[in-house]
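User: Please predict the structure of the protein below. I'd like the answer in structure-token form so I can feed it into my own downstream comparison script.

Assistant: Understood. Taking the following sequence of 214 residues as input:
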Amino acid sequence: MKKLLFNYVLPYLLFGLIYLWCLTLRSKNLNEEEENHFKNLAGPYILTLWHGRIFYLFYYLRRHPEYFLLISPSEDGDLLARLARLMGYSVIRGSTYKKAVPAARSLIKVLRKNNKIIIIADGSRGPRCVAQSGSVQLAGITGAPIFPMTFGARNKVVLNSWDRFVIPLPFTRCTLNFSSPISLARRADEQSIEEKRLELENTLNLITEVGDEG
């Protein structure tokens, strides 16, 4: 019974709660030009964000089955995977920590089929707001550009978690922010990958700071 509730009842309850919660929110886009840029791209691309800024973007980008999310094969991942599918995303089960190579191969296949992926830049364990190199390496292998994105909220709760997870309060205004794409030449060397990783990290921190002020 517990497994039934966790796997089949709770996802629908969370879906309804998040949907109703976010319906109360107003949004302001600080960079519609870059959002339109990636939405109008015919080929593959990578969207990336900080772990602590998932909440509203998870709702905002819903109903896009061409967006693939990498979700761990754990029990908690089962719940998140069902919730993501209810939101209209496609899901790949895998982890950047366990069986990282098969997960990377799956993401590469998705991009080579001209689909899109969403990656958490600082991963599922952090450190907070420190970009990992995974999305940059995928960009170098596939030629897909990386689009950093974030949101801020005027009135919010910031959880005391490793990622300082941001939950906007009902009826507040959320500020969306997107950046111009980051690209990497195919077969780039380690120095180029590290330079782009730092560029991604700095860009995400900058647009997040601007979004929080907006």
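That's the full token string. Strands lie at 26-29, 45-49, 67-71, 90-93, 116-120, 146-153, 156-158, 166-168, 173-178.
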